[in-house]
């Protein structure tokens, strides 16, 4: 059969709904099969977070009647100064409501990667009157988005930064091998805390499906998550009604498929740790956790729970445990024998005033960072003297 590759734009909710089965089948067989690209995740995000000035721009790539790829875009026209912002469905909500859709990408069959990239780039350039710039977050380096970025660079400048690290464990054949791979101090901490817990009460681990109402597990997770962050005098993402609505809806849609689970560890009848996981293609994605801060020094409940869960996953034949990515210091994840890779944020800017403005901003920011580092390295008196010289033009004595 002669190849006849074409791109169709899906821009209404009815068409979006109709794609569900084909969409998930494509994810199953795609280059990067993962739960944050499933129809349920992406559609639920659209239901909860869409605004009147958001426009669906889902691009489906076909070869004759075969679906090769889906690029789950939308266009954000929220701000009059930056209208036409091309984004991936699953990102763009306010920071205080952010669900973080990890590893966004085009969903594509590996056998047609090159053709898909060319077709999507050609479509975006041909329809560049519909969008003015692209903005993407939490992107991996080997993504199709990154490959598209290289090809689109003939007409668009791109500015990419490594915003965080992604941490994952390649699981060994046996639970014993995993524990043996940990550092001596980590093994000692795990065994001593586990023995302490076992000698002072019964340990029980429950899944969301073990509760009469699975949402009880979500409530426990919320309570433990709040306790964890309130002990650091920080707010909880569960303060966001949109965030809670998203995850409650998703729990209803994915629990029976075994893709989502909330696991709770009890000690002596009390919940002391919980993890919110997504399971897909023999990979477990650790999305969120919470633990009892008052038991942290005595039991290190999250360390014990994580290692027990990883051992259980190894027994079940899982291949990988992915801690995902987050901003800030996540060095504790390295203790669990993780491998890491950078996660990127990128902007695609049409050559012209947008690109000039971004270059100016980057220069100012770089200079500001240089001055800040100089000030930070100075003592108080030296800093005050330097400020007087810069502001009032005083000469150095």
TrEMBL record:
Gene3D superfamilies attached to this UniProt entry: 3.40.630.30
Coiled coil region boundaries: none
InterPro entries referenced in this protein's UniProt entry, alphabetically: Acyl_CoA_acyltransferase (IPR016181), BioF2-like_GNAT_dom (IPR038740)
Residues covered by the BioF2-like acetyltransferase domain: 184-333
Pfam families (alphabetical): Acetyltransf_6
Protein name: BioF2-like acetyltransferase domain-containing protein
Organism: Leucothrix pacifica
């Amino acid at each position: 059969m002669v190849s006849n590759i074409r791109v169709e734009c899906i821009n209404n909710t009815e068409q979006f709904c109709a794609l569900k089965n084909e969409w998930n089948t494509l994810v199953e067989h795609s280059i990067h099969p993962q739960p944050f690209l499933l129809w349920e995740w992406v559609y639920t995000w659209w239901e909860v977070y869409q605004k009147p000035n958001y426009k669906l721009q889902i691009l489906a790539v076909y070869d004759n009647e075969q679906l090769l790829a889906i690029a789950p875009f939308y266009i954000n026209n929220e701000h009059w100064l930056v209208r036409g912002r091309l984004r991936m469905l699953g990102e763009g909500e306010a920071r205080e409501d952010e669900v973080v859709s990890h590893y966004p990408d085009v969903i594509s069959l590996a056998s047609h990667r090159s053709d898909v990239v060319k077709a999507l780039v050609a479509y975006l350039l041909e329809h560049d009157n519909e969008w003015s710039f692209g903005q993407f977050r939490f992107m991996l380096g080997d993504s199709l988005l990154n490959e598209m970025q290289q090809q689109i660079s003939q007409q668009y400048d791109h500015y990419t930064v490594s915003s965080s690290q992604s941490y994952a464990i390649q699981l060994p054949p046996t639970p014993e091998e995993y524990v043996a791979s940990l550092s001596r101090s980590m093994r000692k901490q795990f065994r001593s805390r586990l023995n302490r817990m076992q000698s002072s009460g019964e340990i029980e681990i429950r899944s969301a499906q073990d509760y009469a109402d699975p949402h009880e597990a979500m409530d426990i997770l919320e309570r433990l998550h709040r306790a964890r962050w309130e002990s650091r005098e920080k707010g909880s993402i569960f303060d966001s009604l949109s965030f809670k609505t998203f995850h409650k809806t998703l729990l209803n849609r994915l629990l029976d498929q075994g893709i989502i689970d909330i696991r709770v560890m009890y000690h002596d009848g009390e919940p002391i740790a919980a993890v919110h996981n997504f399971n897909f293609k023999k990979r477990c994605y650790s999305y969120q956790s919470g633990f009892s801060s008052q038991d942290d020094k005595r039991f290190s409940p999250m360390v014990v729970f994580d290692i027990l869960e990883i051992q259980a996953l190894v027994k079940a034949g899982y291949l990988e445990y992915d801690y995902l990515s987050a901003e800030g210091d996540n060095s504790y994840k390295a203790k669990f024998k993780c491998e890491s890779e950078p996660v990127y944020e990128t902007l695609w800017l049409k050559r012209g005033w947008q690109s000039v403005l971004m270059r100016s901003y980057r220069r100012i920011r770089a200079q500001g960072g240089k001055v800040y580092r100089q000030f930070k390295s100075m003592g108080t008196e030296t800093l005050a003297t330097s400020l007087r010289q810069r502001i009032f033009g005083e000469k150095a004595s």
